[in-house]
Amino acid sequence: MFNTSYRTPPQPNSVFTRNHLVTLQSRILIGTKMAVDMSSPKAKQVQDLIKSDKVVIFSKTYCPYCKLAKEVFEKIKEKYTVIELDKRDDGEEIQHILGEITGAKTVPRVFVKENCLGGGSDVKLLYEKGELQKMVA
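== Glutaredoxin-2, mitochondrial ==
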């Protein structure tokens, strides 16, 4: 009654499958890792941005954790410089550079006195412990 036969999937040695895998691998690599030249003018610009103010937040306008980080600094009435990466043509490049500097490409990346505190949850935790207020003093 039922057809129990099945079709064998293409074998890895077939041309289609090899080409498909190479394309897929390329897309994954391009999406996850970008070569970063830390001596480039853009990397210097990012480092200068980090030094430009006591509090610098690299953010994206739609990110809830970015909003959280900004709200924490507003609660303690601390001014900050925000760089909205999704509003810049070079935002992705800056994010990759931040990944090299901090070890994390996620946003926000929050810097106080040139030290990376981490992201929104990290900033909130420091605030709740009373440590953030001391750091910005």
